């Protein structure tokens, strides 16, 4: 305490930031995926694109970018590589030629069978109970929704 007041710089200490452990944890979590995804020949970004396609089968590039919180500059080379690998098709939308319609191929669907063991394997690396995972999931998405709604104001 200086002059009876709390340190005005306390909030600037790294240990007092929620952003830092979230950032570091996110980086480490993606790193944990590495060995599993290398076996599939995918990067983490390619994997999350495929997860959306496995769920929806067809999606517009705009919806995919929004769903994954990625910009087109990041997404374009990822989609090109996945298309070259034969996991998805890209077709120009008839309604808006700036948009692509993305569709998972049979080869892409077959890749899902190889990926099914990844989520539980990575969960084992994290070391949380199912209840802790659920709490983390709920709080993380709540914070994300709150920040997104403030950005749109």
Brief account:
It is built from seven helices and three strands, in the order H-H-E-H-H-E-E-H-H-H. With 153 residues, it is mainly α.
List the helices and strands and how they pair.
Layout: H1 19-40, H2 44-56, E1 58-60, H3 61-68, H4 72-84, E2 88-92, E3 100-104, H5 106-115, H6 118-126, H7 130-152
Antiparallel strand pairs: 1-3, 2-3
Helix pairs in contact: 1-6
Got a strand count? 3
- Which structural class should the secondary elements be placed in? mainly alpha
Q: For the record, what is the CATH homologous superfamily label of the domain at 38-122?
A: Winged helix-like DNA-binding domain superfamily/Winged helix DNA-binding domain
Instruction: Tell me the span between the first and last alpha carbons.
Output: 38 Å
> What's the shape?
globular
CATH class category name of the domain at 38-122: Mainly Alpha
State which percent range the strand residues make up: 5-15%
Are there runs of 5+ residues with pLDDT below 50, and where?
Answer: none
- Element-by-element helix/strand order: HHEHHEEHHH
User: What is the mean pLDDT?
Assistant: 92
The proportion of residues forming helix, as a percent range, comes to 55-70%
How many helices? The count is 7
Query: What is the CATH topology classification name of the domain at 38-122?
Result: Arc Repressor Mutant, subunit A
Side by side, the strands of the main sheet go 1-3-2
Radius of gyration: 20 Å
Q: In CATH terms, what is the architecture of the domain at 38-122?
A: Orthogonal Bundle
Could you give a short account of the major beta sheet?
3 strands, antiparallel
